[in-house]
Amino acid sequence: MRIRTAASALALLLATSLSAAAADAVYAPYDPAPAPLAPAANDYGDADFVFELGVSGVVSPEYLGSDEYQINPSPIISVEYLNLPGIGSFGGKDGLGLSIGPSFDYIGDRDTSDYPELDGLDDLDATYELGIKAGYEWQHAEVYGAVRYAFGGADGFVGDVGANLIARPTERLVLKAGPTASFASSDYMDSYFGVSARESAASGFDLGAYDPDGGFKSVGVAATARYEIFTDWFINADAKYDRLVGDAKDSPIVKAGDENQYFFGLGISKRFSLDLW
Fold first, then answer.
1. How many helices (H) does the chain have, and how many strands (E)?
2. What is the dihedral angle through the alpha carbons of 269, 225, 94, 98, rounded to the nearest 10 degrees?
3. Residue 39: is its pLDDT beyond 70?
4. How far is CA 33 from CA 27, 36, 38, 271, in A?
5. What pLDDT, on the 0 to 100 scale, is given for residue 92?
6. 3-state class (DSSP) for residue 204
7. Which residue has the higher pLDDT, 138 or 28?
8. I want to staple 195 with a disulfide (CB 3.0 to 4.6 A). Which of 117, 185, 210, 265 is the partner?
9. Distance (Å, whole) CA 134 – CA 243
10. How far apart are alpha carbons 40 and 173 in whole angstroms?
């Protein structure tokens, strides 16, 4: 499946948001006085630990720099509020403020026999990324950043930063959109974008030898829509466009594929609240 523009993903995101907003105004039939919908559960009460778990289906490039796409499951994990006695709290009772939590990512293996344009390159095992993310959210804006250590197919550090404007059309619907950028260490960049002299020769010199440095990997824009279908249950839709830049963009691997990378996700999640202390 080839995706050349972000229009389809963003259109799906917009349609999801509008449908969710419309559903907010529909009442059960034959009820002349329907009860109002419960507001979004932002007041955590006596809870000390509030987190969210879920699963999403994600459309993403088959490998970094590819112009072909695949669909894979992806976990939804976030920490909204944590109170540590004697230390302080992260996140606010209204869902705003500072938040700190884990950051995960997974990149599937790259079997070059599946891609004629990568003939001659070594196969690359799956990469696992584990780290920390932090952000600060106001009523109508937020900033965030994350850094992760990668191991498996690629080693090194990778991370991302971004900012969003936030719209809250209803108590249940939150829309976010804004710029984003990612960066990676030289080891990580070499794993996904480098070509050794041996690999170049094995490709018949169709792919020139290339040794990328670390630095910014991509810049782009991301949008999300989040709708609370029931108290503490959410539908999450995400669309993102990344443009590979710098040494990533100049890689022969990317030149054989596409520097424009598109992502779309749709999933469901549930918020949990625990009274720990």
1. 5, 11
2. 90
3. no
4. 9, 9, 15, 29
5. 65
6. coil
7. 138
8. 210
9. 24
10. 9
Mean pLDDT over residues 239-265, rounded? 97
Instruction: Please provide the distance, in angstroms rounded to a whole number, between the alpha carbons at the two ends of the chain.
Output: 51
In angstroms, the CA 61 to CA 245 distance is 16
3-state secondary structure of 254: helix
pLDDT in tens, 189-201: 999 999 999 999 9
The SS3 of residue 218 is strand
Give ∠ CA 9-10-15 in degrees, rounded to 5: 100
Tokens of 237: 């839709």
- The token duo for 35 is 């009860």
Bridge pairing between strands 215-230 and 173-184: antiparallel
CB 212 within 8 A of CB 195: no
- Give the residue among 5, 81, 8 at the shortest CA–CA distance from 47: 81
Percentage of residues of the chain with pLDDT beyond 90:
64
Q: In the beta sheet, which residues pair with residue 130?
A: 104, 149
Identity at 88, one-letter amino acid code: G
Residue 37 banded pLDDT, cuts 50, 70, 90 = very low
Dihedral through CA 83, CA 141, CA 61, CA 236, nearest 10?
60
The answer to whether 229 and 237 are in contact (CB under 8 A) is no
**Coil, helix or strand for 277?**
coil
Better-scored residue on pLDDT, 185 or 100: 185
Question: Do residues 188 and 157 make contact, with C-beta atoms less than 8 angstroms apart?
Answer: yes
CA distances from 24 to 141, 172, 184, 197, 230 (A): 24, 8, 42, 59, 11
Query: 222 with 264: CB under 8 angstroms?
Result: no
The whole model's pTM is what?
A: 0.77
